[in-house]
Structures are given as C-alpha cells and as structure tokens.
Amino acid sequence: MTHPIPEPPSVDVQEGLEVLNRVPRLGGPLGRLAALLDRVLLTLAVIALIGLSLTVLLQVASRLFLPITLAWTEELTRYLFIYMVSLGAGVVLHRHRNVNVELFHARLTPRGRALYLIVISLITLGFVVMVLPGAWQFAQIGAFQTSPTLRIPMIYIFFSSVLLFASLAFYAAICTLEGIMALIRPAPDARSEC
C-alpha cells in the first residue's frame, strides 16, 4: 500500500500567516528612513549573532583543548545576545514577524487589517513611551559600574534597553502611520475586498 506524498504548502497558506504584511508600507522620506534603519539594525544584529557564535565556539574549544578556560567568553556571549535582541526587536515589529496567535487575521478586510495594525501599534507605542524614561535611568546606573571580567563600563550594556525601546517606539509610530494611510487610501487591488 502506497501513501500519497503530501504536497508542499501553497503560497496561500504562507500569505494567510502573514496577513499584516499586506498593509502597504509607508513611502516618502519617512519610509526610506525606516527601510535604511531596517538594514542598519539588521546588519548590526547579524554581526552580533556572528560574534556570539564565534565566542561560543571559542568557549567550547577552550574547555576542550586548552588547559585553562576563558572566563570572559560567557560574559561576552551574554552581552552580544542582549544587543542582538535589542537591535532586531524593532525590525521584527515593523515586519510583523513577532510571535502572535493568528486566529482571525485572515478574515479581516484590508481596512480591518489596517485598523488592527493601528490598535496594536498604539498599544505598543503607549507601553514603550511609559517604559523608555525608566530604561534611560537604568542605563545611567551603569555609568558607575564595570563588567566583572571584561571591565566594560556597564552603561554600554545597560544602554541596550534604551536602544530596544527607542527602536520599538520608532517602528510602532511607523506602523501606526502605515495603518492610518491604509485606512485612508487602501491599496488599489484591495479596494474590491472592502
């Protein structure tokens, strides 16, 4: 008895999972600034990931092949991981790649998607605006501390929280504007779906 080979998922399934990507991106100078910032932040996040990977490999190699272990590798790995997340979080928000439960997104009309994006972005923006001053105060605490093994001023490490929340605020504002623009002027191919 032969079993049929399952067909790969269709493009419709993937599009159904990425419903918010159908909301048109912001154009003009602000849209170009967001795209440029996307590239810069993602490049830095990838550099942090590569550095993290190389540091972990060095840590494993030192434990296996060297008579001593390098104590600073664990600390550097942690800091690179923190920065990788801080650099990538805003871009993830802008590209709608964050973890969420998509129970009803596919049923939304283009205007419904735009409204949903506005609500989620405004909630995110409100939270970030409340937290950002505290993140700045937290970063300033690090001015008087250094890391245990690398002796890095901790303000550079604690500043990752400011970077995280500032990029989330910027991208939440961009997503809000994209949602508003989609509400005002839906995409030409989406007008029939409204």
Automatic annotation (TrEMBL):
Can the keyword Glycoprotein be found in this entry's annotation? Answer: no
InterPro entries for this protein? DctQ, TRAP_DctQ
Q: Which residues form the Tripartite ATP-independent periplasmic transporters DctQ component domain?
A: 53-174
Its main localization is membrane
Residue ranges of the TM segments: 40-61, 76-93, 114-135, 155-177
Q: Which family does it belong to?
A: Belongs to the TRAP transporter small permease family.
Q: What is the protein name given in its UniProt record? A: TRAP transporter small permease protein
The record lists the organism as Salinicola endophyticus
